[in-house]
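Service request form, structural biology core

Requester: graduate student, group of Dr. S.
Request type: structure prediction, single chain
Budget code: on file
Notes: please return the result as structure tokens.

Sequence provided:
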Amino acid sequence: LLKQQALLDAAEKARRQKLAQQLAQEALVLFQQSKLEEAEAKFSKAVELDPSNNSFYYQYGVTLYKNDKFQKSIVVLQNANGTGFNPNERDYFLGLNYMKLKDYVKAHSTFTALKDKQDKTLSPSAAFFAGVIDFQKEKYDQAKSSFEFVLDKTKKNISITGFS
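Core staff response, request fulfilled:
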């Protein structure tokens, strides 16, 4: 797609980029409305029209994940580079894809790397999934360490009725 885009004249390239941006915006609205199949189609077309826009790859990859197209989601997310999205979120979705495909080695590696990045939002969840994988493999000490990380890094605003 990038080679085809390079062959276009400037006017056609600009026209396609504008159309791709419009389709991606429409796809995002559809995604937010949980119309995931329609969102996927629009993101796919946006990527086809403007393959150089990396933010489309991220959004498209997440949509593919939500549509249970894990293998394709991995390929698309691996091509999501640059700005316009949080790379930790991309890595989190990569880990989730690997888990869904039962590639626990890659999932564990991805989640452990994300845990080590100390992202306040995603690192505890990543540690949890790494702990689950360790627990399934009967690596109880490693699992315990991951679960302790989750407890230590999760906000402590749990309350029981009548108590704070």
